[in-house]
What does this fold into?
Amino acid sequence: MNQVITIALSKGRIFDETMPLLAAAGISPQDDPEKSRKLIITTNRPDVRLVIVRASDVPTYVQYGAGDLGVAGKDVLLEHAGGGLYQPLDLAIGKCRMMVAVRKDFDYAAAVQRGARLNVATKYVQVAREHFAAKGMHVNLIKLYGSMELAPMTGLADAIVDLVSTGNTLKANQLVAVEEIMPISSRLIVNRAALKLKRESIQPMIEAFARAAGQP
Ligand code: PRP
It folds into this structure.
């Protein structure tokens, strides 16, 4: 009997960049999540289906086994508290950088030097906490869920920690990046129990993704 494999993905850039990897594993979706409202998407393979979830929910689906596999950004994985995830591959997609950014007219270096306690707005509180602790800086972290760029402009925060890809969003909001925290890319994640129980189906997929992602 064929085991059904569920792959958790988010819409947008991760979905688009995952398509060639799925194609390399012989999987093609039968709907486009940008056009369809369906949250479960069947594929050309009766034993493989996709579930479309929020990016930050992908690790949760895979942790609990509602998804056998998933694709999630390192940014999301670092903020995810749960275990049970095997991360066999860096897929080298969704590449960007986690940065500290401030208003163009804010002297970050001087504020750091005089030991100012900065207000930092971010969706990535774990990463931000570790980054500033490692620098020996005391900061007040303000949790936001989006549009971080607005925080320095409105006086909510002195700095933000956010993802930067082209840099256009920072520029459009009169912000500049002052520190790189880490490079970010998307990872394949696999439920540990599923890897054991469905290894025959999952292992060839991992190998096809690895070849398509140019990994040894
Ligand atoms: C990310 C990030 C920035 C933007 C950076 O947001 O939070 O706002 O992309 O990209 P850029 O450097 O190319 O301008 P995203 O569009 O992923 O949406 P989000 O706010 O929901 O995270």
Observations:
- The longest helix spans residues 199-212.
